[in-house]
What does this fold into?
Amino acid sequence: MTADISRRALLKAAGLSGAGLAFASIMGPSLALAQASARGFTESPMLAEKVAAGQLPPLDERLPEEVFKVGQGVLLQDEFQTWEDGSFGGELRVASVFPTPFTFLGGGGTILRSPGQTTEASLPNVVSAFSHSDDYTVFKFTIRKGLRWSDGEPVTTEDVRFHFEDIYGDPEVGRAWPAQLFTQGNSTMGPAKLNIIDEYSFELTFSAPYGFFIADLNSWIPNYELLFRPAHYFKQFHKKYADPAKLEEQLKANAIDSWSQLLKLKEPPHWEYGTAAALGMPVLLPWVLTEYSEQRTVFERNPYYWHVDGKGQQLPYIDRIVNNRAADRDAQVNATLAGQVDLAVETDAPLSKMSVYVQNAEAGGYRVFTTGSFNYPIQLFLNHDYEYDKADSAWQKLVADPERRFGRAIGLAIDPQDINDSVFYGMFGEPFLTTKSFDPDEAEGLLDAIGMSERDGEGFRLGLDGQRFVLRLSFSEASSDFPPVAELLKEQLEAVGIRVEIDPLGIDFGLFNQRKAANEIQASLFWNDGTAWEGGISEDYLPSHKGPWSPMTWQYYITQGKEGREPPAYIQEFYDIHTERKAYPPESEQGKALYAKMMQWFDDNYVLFPVSGLKVVPNVVHAGLRNTQNEGAPYELDSYLSSEGLWFQT
Amino acid sequence: MSDTTTSAPAPRPKKVQDRIDRLRAQYSTGGDRRRQRAEQLYSASQWQLMRAKFGKHKLAMVSLYLLILFYVVAILADFIAPYDPQERSRQHIFAPPSAIHFFAPDGGFVGPYVFDSRTRVNPKTFKYDLIVADNADMNPVVLFPKTDPYLLMGVIPMSVKLFGTTSRQPVFLLGADNLGRDLFSRIVHASRVSLFVGFGGVLISFVLGVALGGISGYVGGKVDVIIQRTIELVMSVPQIPLWMALAAAIPAEWTGIQTYFAITLVLSLVGWTGLARVVRGRILSMREEDYVMAARISSASSWSIITRHLIPGFTSYLIVHITIAIPFMILGETTLSFLGIGIRAPDVSWGSLLQQAQDVVVLSNYVWLLWPAAFVVAAVVLFNFIGDGLRDAADPYAK
Amino acid sequence: MLQFALRRLGILIPFLIAISIVSFIVIQLPPGSYVDSYVNNLRLQGNVVSAEQEGNIRAMYGLDKSMPEQYALWMGKIVFAGDFGSSFRYNRPVAAILMERVPSTIILSLTAIAFTWLLAVPLGILSAVKQYSVWDHTLTLIGLVGLAVPGFLLALGIMFVVYQNTGWLVNGFFSPPFREAPWSLAKVLDLLKNVWLPILVLTIGGMATITRVLRATLLDELNKQYVTTARAKGVPEMTNVLRYPLRIAINPLLSTLGWMLPAVVGGEIVVSKVLNLPTIGPVLLEASITQDMYLAGGIVMILSVLTVFGTFISDLLLALNDPRIRME
It folds into this structure.
């Protein structure tokens, strides 16, 4: 290699930029020859030491009767990952703005498991057997016998009962049911009925066909906590079970007044499993939080994790995850450049910094490749409910046009290729959905036809009421590509005569959400999880989830008509498709047909406009890291969600 | 020569005659004005003295002229900037400053021109590289090229710019930004916001600071205590929630500049406290001086004692305070943009341009985007040099 | 003087109470509350949150009580139990967060202030004594560049240039392996390798204000007759400058000395973000934005106490420095 590299290597050895790296390689894959257990399993030397010291039971006693075997095509689809059985040890360093590194802990703990972001080929994961009635109303589960929480306590149906009865069922706890547990995700249809059969089996019954539930069982978004909570642990914070004196002590130690607040604090959702409150909480994940400070969080391997590789080695391979906190996204990028990060994708490694990643790859000791994304590119949303309760609103007249000419004109005026070339290095895919054709002349024709032909002194079109017309584009600056995209959209829409005002609402979503709740947003920019809609992992196409396109009819929908706006016929059509879709598993034949129908609805009704083709995002990974996904794989998040398979090669 | 009866006196020596003439002229009615003018020379007002002294201060004078130039450029931005600040050239994303040539490739002098060029992403480094073909066309850079008609300062119809090319190839004096927009044009337009908006705010806080600080220090006692505690209270009030409340309260249909102006006004209502404490401190130490005592004994009013005897005692400080406040004024908005207030596109300010440059990608590949910093520094330096000149001019003891 | 000090200390307590009330109100000025956005998010996810449940959640956080009651509870706990409440967002006691971040913030700020004064005062004197010399112009220019270039850009720029040339990237107070390590020589060295940059940036940013003010006010004094007289009497030039003119010239700086700490804390928000420093500034920003009111309130209280004590010290120094200032 060149002299330059050896100089850098020296610097690193001297404990400069790569002190952590040097540490990782010392700690790296262990060469110790581990002996297989009676059942044919091997464990990390780190755990073997603890067993030898009497701190842990032997491996065979820690694993359930039936383990979950991981190999080629299990975590990710065959074509997106080349699986190699690895070796134990090492420390994975990440940098995150939050105490919980993005979704590290979401992977590995779903109730069923399908490769990647699919939901169809469901292998039982937390459970050992799973079945459902043909009409998708009754779901039967059997928990893996001998499966244990990360503190060694067995997982039983008591964990499910506690979850249903003492958390959601107890009015004093005051917890709202998660949407997924309602029949068809619709709160008005009531939650699932739980029927405990014995210590290991239970049944859920819904009041109507709910095939979509299968996607939720596969999804890392609700994860195992959709059905399971470590009851033995939470009982110490629950008034019904806890010793009053100890509860009082806990309240004091946490500076909290009520036990329900304490319980809520101690029971964070899985995306907060890295916060201080999660210390000591047993989990069903590859790693467990063991250290928390404002500067970093450390996760160590779960000794009871029930996944093994082809050689019988207990996963994960890597012993520790160290998450060094970054003050903001830029600090995160800097940590990556400095070689302090072993794995970063998507928001942790934005495309806008691609050039510096690539240029510093050698110095930082990492490689860079691109994959598809879980997220759609930024979209423009038009709020069809804006000013719905204002008499003679010019905006309402525009969006109520049965031919959707205003929306069509917007779609034709947006030039996704220009935005792709100018902001995304031309790397994003082909334009799709409502912006797939670009024809400003036709757009002008449509706007003239709808009645916006009159123009003001500056050449902008007047509204249907003959007054000044402004399209206000609101957004929170979630990432650095929002401002340039907003400016380009302004230019493109103004080219067909629509006056646009850019309305940035800061870096936090607070102001945006307030405006959204008050229905004060006319048009907005936001991304959503478009590529995960089809498999049912995400449903954030809904009218008020990201950018609002019909927030008031959504309110009507979820309050059963008590509040909000009664949906006009075309929006009711959307709700009908959405509801119908819930009856079937999303990747079943009917599910796919309904999904196509829904996308057709989006294509016909112009409520959202992707500003470019599908996203392509960088994956920055340590040069020695194995079992990463392949270049060109569809979801960057899979790098995180399959992290139990990662190992360091030296 | 009215007296013809007496013999003509012997002619006086010229020097003596001149003096007599001058005295006569002075005591005659017509001489009044001249006399006054002569006396004025000896009793020039403080302001005149200062102006004369300032005029001799070369650095300050040069700075003053340059600063005036800055303001003229800001006012005539539409004419001086060759392009609209929003005008993009899709082929010139991150184009470096144009190389301006004077000699043809064969060596003959042809006047300033730029080659046809474009930028393209390098697929290996993901950096935008400048591409100039081997036999690229030459595009002369000329004065007063014809452009689309526009209104200078919103009133004067014009259809020429100060300089530019006559072809489709733009000239980027300071390079182009992430969307292929001319940075020079953007800086010139941004100088409007940066050099004008906000001055009102600084003035308000200046007046408040001097007045309240002066009263606090001079009157003392309970008034002092109340004003001082108010200052501490104002200083202690957390500002971020205040801005947020404001961000939510500002009507959505206000333009960015209106919002920004409102913010500067509020900023100034908080910003007077520091100055007020300094003024008070100085007055506390000076009010015991003999000359103040003398003024008080001769029953001068408090107001005139403060304004005529005390404040001139620390003019230097006041000048420095104002000149130091300038950069905070120019850049103050950058922190506010985190909260969704401050300058928003399409308006640009030096601060918002600099914020775009706060990026490792810029530092590593496109350093010319740091140019706005040079303009801020230049403006601040000019203001400070002028301040130095004023200080020297105001100092009666200065050599 | 002692009497003055005691009297000032006496009004400190009621004054701090006043500050805490105003802060408590201001923190809640922005529309909405943490519970509003929490419930709003739940609803967006399709959950049904009944009015009763919303009430429960509000009660859980104590937000169902009137503002005076909330204030009394909050203050009471701080005063009687040292309990600052719990952060909504961080899910941990505010006191724990303050303990982790406030000391490093104060040490960083005080160090930066010390460096600023140690450098700026002599340079200001030099600038005034050698007015319009090469020294004066150079110092003025450097100071003004420091003043005019925003801290975040300066920090990022220096960080990047150092990185390009040495491969060392300043990121936080410590490199990751040392962040939770026990103190050792290596850890101290690592700290020095990182901390010089924020100190440099904060020092450069604050220096110009002091040198410029000192230069201007000192020039006023140096030309006065008592200085000329002293000079004529043969007093050595340095003694002459330091003995009287400096004492008068430094008055404006002493007046605002007490506020340098909060000002530096405010100024370091952006620098801390760029350099990834775990200080209190970014947390205050975040807590304010997300209306994490007990956290924001706790930080504001700490800063206010520091400001008030700073002002008190500043007043004492003013009086000690210049006997003409009467304290009544």
About this structure: Residues 1-32 of chain A have pLDDT under 50 and may be disordered.
